[in-house]
Amino acid sequence: MEPVHDAQGAYRAFGPALVRKAERLLRNRDDAVDVVQAVFVDLLHRWNSEVDLPYLYKAVTNRCLNQLRDRGNRARLLERQGTAVGPQGRVRCDEQVLGLDLIVRLSDRLDEGHMQTLVCRFVDDMTQEETATHLGVSRKTIGKRLDVIRDEVRALLATANAGGAA
Amino acid sequence: MSTCISEPISWLRLEQHALAMTAADERAAIETHLAACEACRSALQAVQNDALVMPELPALERTFGIPRNGGQVISLDAARKKARTRRWLLPTTISTVIAAAAAVMLWVRSNHTGPRGEAGQPTRTLHATSHVKGAGELALQVARERNGNVQTNVATFRVGDRWKTLLTCAPSTALSATLWADVVVFEVAGPDLVPAFPLASSQLECGNAVALPGAFELTGSRENIVCVVISADTPLNRTTVGSALLTSSDAVCTSVKPE
Question: The complex's ipTM?
């Protein structure tokens, strides 16, 4: 691949990969494209040679999480997800593929670091080692965060099951 | 979907692999895994088969000078409130301006269908373009920021949206005098329109879709009319402003309705 020297070049080269990444989380392509465009618009005037695909991946994750935390967006995204292809779920959390509705509920209970870890591990299918490198924290920290995430997933599912049984 | 035989190749690594960005040793490791793993092979195929063409990224020329934090957002509520602010970036290509101005004109025309509008209110003809003395042909656009997305060519608002006004006029025409621009917002609550002034007066700089300094919010459950008034030499005398402004040749206006 040709080296990328500016934001426009990176947008052309990495845009599709970033849209697919955002789409896995938001579950629809239109919103994914909007997110990726917003990331690049933000970067246009402060582009530097440090910006690479992993950096852009993190920027897209943050944008997507902001979208999910916004309650107005949330309802719209949940409504739209019915037509989207489901997650492939190569990495599962306690055999659970984390769908959009579950991720949205988790975003109410988990902080930024935990949500980034969740996305790396269960949406982007990174290993723990890769997640640690990607987020710039230790493997041990990632392990602890994943424990917390699993606990929260179990708690949410237990609540949902109890509600369904009642 | 089948299950990965061990730890999957992450989407990031698959994308890098598809873009030929991986080093030789990593490439070999990925290919070895792919040869044995249907799940990851299928994921890579999904990447390779996705013929997504990215829409053109807007050519940006102007960064609105709104600080990320601590900037003041002006609300049209009685009390001003502080709110989160963001840097705005907007496309300012001539084609965008022309398209938006045309859309605004069409929208205005389509809403001017009879002597009475919705709920018995008089229908108004708003001019989004006007020949303003001292400034020549002037066109107004409004830009809306919602959840970080900036759009022009919009005519609806929600609470929390942030708005800016963009003016287009020929750069050479504004040199003969100091021209001032004032944003005036009317909430359509009855036959008498009460003006609000969300922003300070500013000197007009002509160009393509030049943003006036500052951003504001629209509130209420009724139509708002956003106008920019141009005055020569001194800022607008706000005590004299009334609904007659809507038909003044010194003002350009557009209507925004609640969603």
Answer: 0.90
